[in-house]
Amino acid sequence: MDALDLMLARRSIRRFTTQDVALEDEQNLIDAAFAAPSGNNARPWHFVFVRDPATRARLKDMHEWTWMLDKAPLVVAVLGNDEDSPWWIEDCAAAAENILLEATALGLGSVWCGMREDATEWSAAREPAARCWASLWASGACWRSSASATPARRRSRARSAR
Ligand SMILES: Cc1cc2nc3c(=O)[nH]c(=O)nc-3n(C[C@H](O)[C@H](O)[C@H](O)COP(=O)(O)O)c2cc1C
Question: Which of 63, 98, 99, 137 is 20 to 30 A from 7 via CA?
Answer without folding.
Answer: 63
